[in-house]
Design goal:
By secondary structure, the chain is α+β, with helices and mostly antiparallel strands. The chain is built from 9 helices and 21 strands. Bound molecules: fe (ii) ion (FE2).
């Protein structure tokens, strides 16, 4: 991109026409360059909405970021209601987006990534960011080495010759699947901007996860809520505002400086409650726009369902629950699906090929439940009973496979009464977001129930050569609230 911009300069100025040495007249040249295409050279761009490192393999990784014109997000000026979710009071959805609480103005520029390790350096080309993508960039990294910790520099500038802004991070590539290595991951779900529980930093859960120093973090969907107030994201502009405001919380930015994130989508960060591909628009925001926005904000290339290995003892599947599903209100029966044929075939093939000791299926929505009787959106509901029954049966036939899910606003561990399949619901990011289940309604399938926020950490390791997996539910402060451990 830099080369391209410089070519434009050469063409406009016409080096040859001056008839003097370039090197003898550098100050003049510099002034002309400045006048020509760096009219606002004082303008800088910032990583105000952070960056995300994801999809880390032994040799590749993805970096996502957005360039921003303002160094800090807009201050929060609204009071909040004193009840669940903490909706803002008197929020004017029609005010300019640039003035909204938590808002960040993005802007054009160039970004590159430099990786440093003990054995060398990898430098990406400059990538230009455009308004059509809300000034975001997705930069694939290749040629990495297995089991190496990389120091990352993201470098941004508004113009070709403008001043640079640098952001730093670290990440470590996985070791080969034949090696038994300890793994620690964290997972959480359901984060609404206004449910923050730390006014300066955003969500305590993010700081608590960072203190555990996990190898990676899996966010199981509802990263933002288009259909919750402050504003209701009924068009592209307001929807983009929500992603920017969320990613600008310091607690979130700080986690991603040292922990890669893997993302799943769910209904509220795609369009609206219980969305499927045949859903009507949300205000002026269409399903297709919602889909475009999700990929705009997530460091991923290719299929939204994927699997990855971490050492001899762990393989993870991240499944897609929105893009391939039947309309929720279609009659239940064979052929009614959430996963879709292609994904089911992929899942069966990859899970049957796997020789990992423990297998974790991450799904945005529950497979076991229990869920409320009136819900019509997931495998634990009557409307998807046929595929749900098949899936629970199939998953329970695979040794040491566990389901981990988002979507539900309470923490739980449940065991399917018919198949014995175990499911771990992480609970929402914040206590202010906890609702939807009566804390006293502990059903026979519940091994644990807590209608509060926080996260789930999962550890895989060996003691005297014996692999174990440990699931620890935690409150927003990181304190354990429940633990389950299984040995292979
Ligand atoms: Fe949710």
């Amino acid at each position: 991109m830099v080369k391209f911009a410089r070519r434009i300069f050469v063409k406009k100025v016409g080096w040859g026409a001056f008839g003097f040495s370039f090197f003898a007249h550098q100050p003049l040249i510099a002034r002309m360059r400045k006048a020509l295409f760096s009219a606002n050279e004082d303008e800088r761009v910032f990583f105000t909405t952070g960056f995300k490192i994801s999809e880390v393999t032994e040799s590749t990784a993805m970096v996502w970021t957005r360039l921003c014109r303002q160094e800090h997000p807009n201050p929060i000026t609204h009071e909040r209601e004193d009840k669940v979710f903490r909706h803002p009071v008197d929020f004017d959805d029609d005010q300019p987006i640039s003035q909204m609480d938590g808002g960040v103005e993005p802007g054009p520029g160039f970004v590159r990534v430099k990786l440093y390790s003990d054995t060398g350096k990898i430098v990406s080309p400059w990538v230009q960011v455009y308004q059509r993508d809300d000034f975001t960039a997705r930069i694939p990294l290749e040629g990495l080495q297995s089991g190496v910790t990389y120091r990352v520099e993201l470098i941004a500038k508004a113009t070709v010759d403008g001043p640079t802004t640098v952001e730093k991070a670290t990440f470590t590539t996985p070791t080969p699947p034949q090696e038994a290595v300890p793994v620690l991951l964290t997972t959480s779900t359901c984060q609404y901007f206004w449910s923050f529980d730390e006014p300066e930093r955003g969500f305590r859960t993010y700081d608590s996860m960072r203190r555990l120093e996990p190898d990676f973090f899996i966010q199981t969907g509802d990263y933002v809520y288009y259909d919750k107030p402050g504003p209701l994201a009924k068009d592209l502009g307001r929807a983009r505002h929500k992603w920017r405001a969320m990613d600008a919380w310091p607690a979130i930015r700080d986690l991603y400086r040292q922990v890669p994130i893997y993302m799943l989508k769910d209904d509220h960060d795609l369009l609206k409650d219980d969305v499927h591909p045949a859903s009507t628009p949300y205000g002026n925001l269409s399903y297709q726009e919602g889909l475009k926005l999700w990929y705009e904000n997530v460091p991923i290339i290719g299929k939204p369902y994927r699997t990855f290995r971490r050492g001899k003892d762990l393989q993870i599947w991240l499944v897609e629950g929105r893009e391939y599903r039947s309309p929720n209100d279609a009659p239940d029966g064979p052929g009614k699906t959430i996963w879709g044929k292609e994904q089911i075939a992929w899942f069966k093939q990859t899970v049957e090929e796997s020789d990992a000791t423990f297998k974790l299926l991450f799904t945005a929505t529950p497979v076991v439940g229990p869920d409320r009787e009136n819900k019509k959106d997931n495998h634990a509901n009557k409307v998807y009973e046929t595929e749900g029954n098949w899936l629970r049966q199939y998953l329970s036939s695979i040794d040491h496979l566990y389901v981990v899910n988002g979507d539900r606003h309470w923490q739980y561990v449940s065991k399917d009464e018919h198949t014995g399949l175990l499911e771990f619901g992480s609970g929402p990011i914040s206590d202010y977001h906890a609702q939807g289940w009566d804390p006293d309604d502990k059903r026979p399938e519940h091994r644990f129930l807590r209608v509060k926020g926080g996260f789930l950490s999962i550890q895989v390791d060996r003691v005297e050569g014996k692999p174990f997996i440990r699931f620890t539910h935690r409150d927003v402060g990181g304190n354990p609230t429940h633990e389950e451990q299984f040995t292979a």
